[in-house]
Write a structure and sequence with these properties.
The protein is α+β, with helices and mostly antiparallel strands and 143 residues long. It has helices at 42-50, 59-64, 81-88, 131-140, and strands at residues 4-11, 15-17, 25-27, 30-37, 69-77, 110-114. It has one domain (4-140). Strand 2 and strand 3 (25-27) form a beta hairpin. The longest helix is centred in the last third of the chain and has 10 residues, at 131-140. It starts with a strand and ends with a helix.
Length: 143
């Protein structure tokens, strides 16, 4: 049973966000991955993240309600959250983002991967209407 999820997010153009109590930050256009976990109701958590209309609760909510941001791919795993986050690499665009309860010293659970599509994101996903939701359903089905 997966407990960790990774949201591959494409930001069409630069934007400025202020997530909760974190300082405002300017994010460059390009690809990001947000790593989170849910011990229970993982599918419901990810589905919530995929909705635009929602109360702003987690740091990632401030990013995903922006028109510029689109979840293009979802990966589920049993790998511990911080290990999955570290494996992704990339740059820390906003220190502390999504890492309020992190004890592993990740610095951020949002990583900037650059302007090119990451290998983990299927090219076909870019053409789908709701690629994040389709990827979640496929991951839950084991495919």
């Amino acid at each position: 049973m997966p407990t960790t999820y990774q949201l591959y997010i494409h930001l069409r153009r630069p934007c400025r966000i202020q997530a909760g109590r974190l300082p405002a930050a300017r994010l460059p256009a390009g690809w990001y991955v947000y790593t989170g976990s849910a011990r229970q109701n993982l599918a419901a958590r990810v589905e919530r993240h995929l909705r635009r209309d929602k109360p702003l609760r987690w740091h990632v909510d401030w990013l995903l309600t922006r028109r510029e941001a689109r979840v293009v791919h979802v990966v589920l795993s049993q790998e511990p959250e911080c290990r999955a986050n570290a494996r992704v690499g990339g740059e820390v665009p906003v220190p502390g983002f999504g890492a309020s309860d992190c004890r592993a010293g990740c610095g951020s659970h949002l990583r900037y991967l650059g302007p090119e599509r990451p290998e983990a994101v299927p090219e076909a996903a870019l053409q789908r209407r709701q690629p994040g939701l389709q990827a979640l359903r496929a991951a839950l089905e084991g495919g």
